[in-house]
Amino acid sequence: MYEMEIQGHKVHLCIDCQLKMEQIKVRQNEESERMINFLSDQMSSLAGMPPMGPRFPERQIIHTEGTILNNINIHNSQIGVVNTGYVQTIDAAVTTIRNHGNGPLSDGLARLTEAVVEDTQLDDPRRKELLELLSTISAEASVPENARRKSVIRPLVSEIGQLLQSSAASLAIYDRVLPLLQSLF
User: Which residue of 9, 12, 110, 128 shows the fewest CB atoms closer than 10 Å?
Assistant: First the structure.
């Protein structure tokens, strides 16, 4: 959990919400930089002078063949249908879980996430729901044991198994990860 101060109030945020808040801040900064550049050009134009002074660099969109995070590799075939925020949350949680000494669980969550993203037997709404569940479960698995909400997460773990019934490949990976999750929750 992260603690932030928003309009004078302390608010507790989960990993996913903290990531979203940071992304919002970055986007707001980029918009402010563009506005400063625009206003500087407007002032120079009104004064009849060429643009002067330093400018914020324009952000360039970088196209890649796939998104590679620290632990999870997504190929470009599915990048358009995946909410990368969920995948980033899972990736951050996998790193934390590995750093706390649970390598098998961290590897299992990373492989399961990759399998769900690349599984052709899953439709997009089901894939989105699975990634959302994996994001929540992995974030909860990364917190200290005494802070885990086990009774909240147990049903989510079984829900993943139900959603994967139509996909043999992903279900096989889930069956290997399931005992590790059950031991945590």
Answer: 9
CA–centroid distance for 38 within its chain: 32
User: pLDDT tens per residue, the chain (185 residues)?
Assistant: 778 887 888 888 888 788 788 888 888 998 999 899 989 988 988 888 888 888 887 765 544 445 556 777 776 555 555 667 788 889 989 999 999 999 999 999 999 999 998 888 988 889 999 999 999 999 999 998 898 999 999 999 999 999 999 899 999 999 999 999 999 98
What is the predicted pLDDT for the residue at 6? 79
CA-CA distance, 73 to 91, in Å (whole number)? 10
Residue appearing with tokens 């970055």: 26
Query: Two tokens at 166?
Result: 């139509």
Q: CB of 147 within 8 A of CB of 185?
A: no
Cα(91)–Cα(112) distance, integer angstroms: 12
> Among all chains, which residue has been given the structure tokens 């399998």?
115
Rounded to 5 degrees, φ, ψ at 100 are -90, 10
Q: Is 101 left (phi over 0), alpha (psi -120 to 50) or beta?
A: left
Please enumerate in sequence order all residues whose Cβ is within 8 A of that of 168, keeping only pairs 6 or more positions apart, or say none.
Answer: 121
